[in-house]
Amino acid sequence: EHAPLIWKHVNHYGLTWGLLTTKWFICLFAEVLPIETVLRIWDCLFYEGNKVLMRVAITLVLSNQQKILMSQDFGDIIECFKSITNDTNAVDCHTFMQNVFKVSGSFPRARLTKLRQECQTEVLAEVKK
């Protein structure tokens, strides 16, 4: 929804979003972003709830759209996703956190819940196969 060109590009190379972003979500960005940025994300997490994690991921992806689209193969895309967390867009925590709420746009909790349910249905269908 937020980055159809990137979604198409990533799928073209047979990558999954899980492969590219699992470390981001598993460690709540602690191992991939500067500590000051991480602490600001965690503050927002406690205040706003877990949807801020999706906002951060969307902001990282959209802020680096050109880099991602310029990646030419499987390995390039993986390296690109590793490097975008060290990009200048993510290092200045104040600017980055402002962008988290601007770039990701409206992000209603109901929409996030619906997307999660759709993903869970897909995963369960795959498990049953």
TrEMBL record:
Pfam families: RabGAP-TBC. It comes from the Eukaryota. Residues 1-49 form the Rab-GAP TBC domain. Keywords: GTPase activation. The keyword Calcium does not apply. PANTHER family: GROWTH HORMONE-REGULATED TBC PROTEIN 1, RAB GTPASE-ACTIVATING PROTEIN 1-LIKE. It comes from Cherax quadricarinatus (Australian red claw crayfish). GO terms for molecular function: GTPase activator activity; small GTPase binding. This is Rab-GAP TBC domain-containing protein. May act as a GTPase-activating protein for Rab family protein(s). Signal peptide: none annotated. PROSITE patterns: TBC_RABGAP.
